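Hey everyone, long-time lurker, first post.

I ran two proteins through the pipeline my lab uses and got sequence/structure pairs for each. Pasting them in order. The first:
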Amino acid sequence: MEITLDQLLASRDGRSAMQRELMEAHPGLTLVCLTVVMPGKVKRNFHSLIVAQAALTELINAFDGTTALLRARDLPTGFEAYLLTTVDRVEAKRVACHIEDTHPLGRLFDLDVLNTDGTPLSRTALGYAARRCLVCEREARHCMRLHSHSQDEIHAKIEQMIDRYVR
């Protein structure tokens, strides 16, 4: 099912509201937010659900014993999960970067660790490399800005990654 720009923007607003609500209700805990990288107008499909399940499993395992709350939402605009942990923000971001960088589908995980003001901690501020393009390995931000790759090319790469993972 394709989503509209208005639906996408509303989902971002909803995610931001959920983040604020969780951080206000649980001060002193670290909030880790999971979304699935799925470019295009279809955010929820068979492939995105495989990625979501893999990401959620990794998140649960990585923060085992330190999780205070876990909330997941499977929405037409994409899968979201919110994990509150007793691990400090910097260490939680290190764990998130490790998952993104080492899991076979990690490039399709977006794991944000939020500062108390709601802004995400930056990978580069902790010495990690910026996220890479799925197709060509340049900095993802660069290719996104220039629209360097077609949606078909990006989706073919995503399908290839997922097919390799499930085999």
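...and the second, right after it:
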Amino acid sequence: MKRTVMIWLALVLAIMGAGADGRVGAQDEDVIYGLIDVDAADVRVGPDFAYAVIGQLPRNASVIVLGRSGDFYSRWDGRQWLQIEYGASPAWVYARLVRTSTAFNSIPPTGRLLPRDGNGRVPQGFDLSSYVCDQWVGSFTQTGNFMAGDTEMTVTYPYLQGANLYSVIVIRSDGYRVAFDSETTTAVIELDKLPREAGIYTWRVAPYWTNSTYRYSWQQVCLLQTGGTFEKPYTGS
């Protein structure tokens, strides 16, 4: 126990002693550090036990933490993961196996667990050879202009293999949200369904998976990505 504490203190001092530019005394306060707390911690391509193991880290190995998936409430339950620097690309480690310089829930979220069907299995269709959300890449477009008198705006976003629903969230400056859902990579934002207030609105989108018609059972696959912004006029009477 004493040896582990000494190693941890040495790691922290080394981190604080030299910053990214190599200067002694320099420090990047935004960097989050971790220390592997078990022997042979599995490293996976994504934040879920369903992903393949691509390596292992020994006890007391130091890592740089890039983000998290899940939340910690009262206990570790398999849904809390840490994204770390690992070779040429990021990878994931189960959070219970790592001690971090920042409390888990204070680490910025960068990923999500895979969806599960009624039998607790990952639905067919997802490509688990790499982190699913790293596969969700492509262009976002919008056509239509509410300020020019259009009553609809069409937006498009990338396709994600395995997802069967997408939700476009339009966000007012004060955080008020309106959802426009679609089963394709195209959605229509309707002016008469937006708040009446004029201003600049942001639209963001996330892929979902579900086998139910009830929205509360939809499972979000990836974090929201920002597609764009638009301006709308006042539409009150």
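Reply from user beta_strand_b:
Welcome! Quick read of the second one: The radius of gyration is 22 Å. The longest strand covers residues 199-209.
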